[in-house]
Amino acid sequence: MIAVFKIALRALRRNILRSFLTMLGIIVGISAVIVGVSMGAGAKAEVDKRIASMGQNLLTVYSGNMSRGGVRGGFGTSPNLQPSDYEAIRKEVTGITAASPEVRTTTSVAAGNQNSFLQVSGVSAEYLQARSWNVQSGDNFTEADVRNANKVCLIGVTTAKTLFGENIDPVGQVIRIKSAPFTVVGWLEAKGSGSFGQDQDDVILMPYTSVMKRLSGDTRFRSIFVQAESPESIADVQQQITGLLRQRHQITEGKDDDFMVRTQQETSDFFNANNRIMTILIGFFAGISLVVGGIGIMNIMLVSVTERTREIGIRMAVGARGRDVLRQFLTEAVLLSALGGALGIATGYWLAPLLTKVAGFPTLISNSSVIMAFTVSAVIGIVFGFFPALKAARLDPIDALRYE
User: Fold this and answer.
1) Is there a contact between 6 and 328 (Cβ–Cβ < 8 Å)?
2) Is residue 17 scored above 80 in pLDDT?
C-alpha cells in the first residue's frame, strides 16, 4: 500500500501546477464549508449569549397585536396587559421566583449641562432579579418606591457616560426627566447587547408606577417578565400563565390569544432560524463548488489515463491485475482530493478569523465541521475518481501496449 501512495505522489508531482489547479475547486468548496459552518455556529453562539444575558429561566409575556387599516403589527404594539394581570400572575402562578411588568417611554433627560433623548423603562423591584442584573454601585429601588411612585431611578453604564462622563459614579446625582427631578439610587453593571442588538446599558430604570403616573400616562403594560424557579418548571409556568390570562381576558375556546408567552429557548430558536437559512445557502453554494471540483478531478484523471495508457499496458504485461490498476488510479484521485481538502481546511481556518476581524461577524470553528469537510473531500475523490480508475482497469493490455 505504501508503494501505491509513493507512485501516486510521484504522478501528482509530475504536473504540480495542473494538480494544484485541479485541487482549486476542492479548496474553494471546503474552505466555503468551513467558513459557512463557522459563521452559523458563531451567530448561534452570539444569539445564545445575548439571550442568556436577558436572565435565567426567563419567560416574557407580550401584550396583544394591533391591526389597523388592514396592517397588522406585531405583539406588543397594542398594550393590553393590565396591572391586575401582573398581580394575578404574582399571586396565582406557582413555580416563579420573580416577576416584573415593563412600560417604556422615550423622553428628554438632563443632567448638569447635558441634555439627551433617552429611553426610560418602568419596572418593578423584582426586575433586576428576573433579568439577573446586578448594581455595581448603590442599591435597587424598593417595593415602597413602587407603591408610592417615588422619583428614584437606576441608570446603565452607557447612560451614565452620556450624562456624567467617563468613570463617574452617578449614585446620588439628580437628573431631570420632563423637568421632574429623579434621584439616581443605583448604577447598573454592564450588560452588553440584547437579543435585537440594542445596547442594554443605554437605559434608565425606575418604578413602573413613576413612569405611568409622571411620564407616559400609560395604564397598561407592553410586556411582563417572569422568572421560573428552574429550567424544568418553565413549561409548567408557561402553561399556567397562558391559562390564567385566557381566563382573565375572557378568551373562549377556538379564539386566538391576545397575548404571547415566549421562553428564552423559543426566542433563541426564532433568531437562529435565520442563521440556519444562511448556513444552508452557504452550504448549497459550497456544495456546487465541490461538485465542480469533483468534475475537474474526473477530467484530469481521464486525461491522466489517456497519457499513461502505454504505462498501464506495461504494468499489466508484467503481471498487474485490473484491480491493481484500479486501486492505483483511485488512490491518486483520493490523494488529489484529500490534499485539496487539507488546503481548503487551512484556508477556512485563516478566512474565518479574518472575517471576524474585518467584518465583525462572529465565527466559531468546530472540530465536527473540519472532520466533515475532510471526509467530504475524500468521498469526492472516491466518487469522481472511480470512473477514470475503472476505465484504466478495463484497458486491454495488448491495445494499451500499441497505444502511441
Assistant:
1) no
2) yes
> How is residue 300 written as a grid cell?
484530469
Find, among 126, 139, 128, 120, the residue nearest to 100 by Cα: 126
Number of H helices, E strands in the chain: 13, 12
DSSP sequence for 128-142: HHHTT--EEEE----
Residue with cell 415593563: 102
Whether residue 53 lies inside any domain: the answer is no
Following DSSP, what letter does each residue of 225-249 receive, concatenated? EEEESSGGGHHHHHHHHHHHHHHHT
Residue 47, classed as helix, strand or coil, is: helix
Please tell me whether residues 41 and 105 are part of one structural domain: no
Check: CB of residue 192 under 8 Å from CB of residue 82: no
27 and 82 part of one domain: no
Domain final residue pick, 258, 287, 317:
258
Per-residue burial over 148-181, b = 16 or more CB atoms within 10 Å of its CB, e = otherwise: ebbbbbbbbbbbbbbbbeeeeebbebebebeeee
Average the pLDDT over 51-80 and give the result.
63
Let me know whether 193 and 300 are in one domain. Answer: no
> Per the domain annotation, does 201 fall within a domain?
yes
Residue-wise pLDDT for 286-333, tens only, equals 788 788 888 888 888 888 888 777 777 777 777 777 777 888 888 888
Taking the C-alpha atoms of residue 137 and residue 140, their distance in angstroms, rounded to an integer, is: 10
Quote the pTM value: 0.63
Asked if residue 303 and residue 371 are part of one domain, the reply reads: yes
In angstroms, the CA 185 to CA 217 distance is 23
Integer Cα distance of 64 and 224 in angstroms: 12
Asked if 23 and 87 sit in the same domain, the reply is no
Domain termination site, one of 231, 258, 285 = 258
Domain co-membership, 288 together with 231: no
Shared domain for 113 and 244, answered yes or no, is yes
**Model confidence over 107-134: pLDDT tens digits?**
889 988 888 888 899 999 999 988 888 9
Question: Do 395 and 352 share a domain, yes or no?
Answer: yes
**At a CB cut-off of 8 Å and minimum separation 6, what does 44 contact?**
272, 275
Domain residues for the domain of 213 are: 64-258
